[in-house]
Design a protein that fits this description.
single chain, about 20% strand, 2 domains, about 300 residues, alpha/beta, 5-stranded mixed β-sheet, Nucleotidyltransferase, domain 5
């Protein structure tokens, strides 16, 4: 079997793994994401690639932001603005003076590819993966195919308005759906000490702290609103939730509860629309490592 390097670029960490073409991970690690400049970012990326470039048959990478699937170029990234017009295949060729099969994919679509390939969306023809992290993104599968849309913008939930009472970008799901912000708000609201982590925040939520529960329920309500909006447009059979916090059972339960309460408040919606199954993603925080690899394998299949 061939070995491939898969890299998941996030707002706080760059995760990477060595996998074979059956999706088996043989090594996995992560480093902090440099956010100061493209130069510092590329130093960290090259340091990862240097460890494996002599033994891999391809490089797969996913990023937060819009990716042109034909050119394999990052169009923009709100999370890491210096990635605008980032052309990894070109940079790799210039740096290493060789050509290697490379696939660049959006993080939300990578999650959908992972779950469709080996996870909880396997066999689904109309479904979606929603990734909750520093921001919020998704990959949508329609008629058994990953949906890119006319301008490679399908599934960019960051830009869906979910709070019309707010002003500016505070209206958008990218602000209201950030799990990082939600954790910070729970920590502040429940009086946890500065520096407390997500595990501490979820202990407060599960313990029934009213201030923590208020923040968390509002967050899950925003996610439920997004799912209902997606359902009204593309009529999905299943939605899986990925990202680090998807490992918390209370998250999926509360999103389902908030969805049910939302629909119950609108009888015509409850009567006319079918609720999609809302479940955790199989790969949780590792979905993008598998999905980026699947994007590369699909690209190689098309070329052969």
């Amino acid at each position: 079997m061939h070995s491939f390097l898969s890299i998941d670029v996030g707002g706080t960490a760059i995760k990477y793994a060595l996998l074979n073409n059956a999706g088996q991970i043989t090594k996995k690690d992560k480093v902090p994401t440099p956010t100061s400049s493209l130069t510092e970012f590329m130093k960290s990326l090259y340091a990862i690639i240097d460890q494996y470039q002599a033994q891999i048959s391809g490089l797969a990478i996913c990023v937060p932001g819009k990716v042109d699937p034909q050119k394999q170029v990052v169009v923009f990234s709100d999370t890491l603005p210096f990635l605008k017009n980032w052309d990894l295949p070109k940079l790799f060729k210039e740096h290493y003076r060789k050509i290697l099969p490379i696939a660049v994919e959006n993080e939300g679509r990578a999650a959908a590819l992972a779950e469709s390939w080996l996870g909880n969306l396997h066999g689904e023809t109309d479904a979606a993966a929603i990734l909750l992290g520093t921001d919020i993104s998704s990959g949508i599968i329609t008629n058994g195919q990953l949906n890119y849309g006319a301008h490679a913008g399908a599934g960019m939930l960051n830009f869906v308005p979910t709070n019309f009472k707010a002003e500016g970008t505070d209206r958008l799901a990218g602000f209201n759906g950030s799990s990082v912000k939600m954790i910070q708000d729970v920590i502040k609201a429940s009086g946890l000490p500065e520096g407390a982590d997500g595990q501490a925040a979820f202990r407060m939520i599960e313990a029934g702290n009213p201030d923590a529960a208020k923040v968390f329920n509002e967050y899950c309500y925003q996610i439920a609103c997004l799912i209902l909006s997606m359902q009204a447009i593309v009529d999905l059979n299943k939605v899986v939730i990925g990202g680090g916090i998807s490992a918390q059972p209370v998250l999926i339960k509360t999103i389902n509860d908030q969805y049910d309460q939302l629909v119950d408040s609108m009888p015509i919606v409850k009567k006319e629309m079918v609720k999609p199954k809302i479940e955790p993603a199989k790969f949780k925080n590792d979905a993008n490592l598998y999905g980026a690899l699947d994007a590369l394998l699909l690209k190689l299949d098309e070329q052969n």
